[in-house]
Amino acid sequence: MSKDMIKVNLLLLFFTIAGTTTAQTNEEVKTFFGNGKLEIGYFVSPTCQFGDIAGSTAILPGIGAGVVFNDKLYLGINFKYIASEKTPEDESDTRLYLDQRYCGLRFEYALRPEKVVHINFPVELGFGDTELDLKDSYEEEGSVPTDDVWFAYLEPGVALEINLHKYVKFSLSAGYRFVSDLSFRSLTEKDLIGMTYSTGLKIGRF
Question: Which of 114, 119, 127, 187 has its CA 20 to 30 A from that of 144?
Answer without folding.
Answer: 127
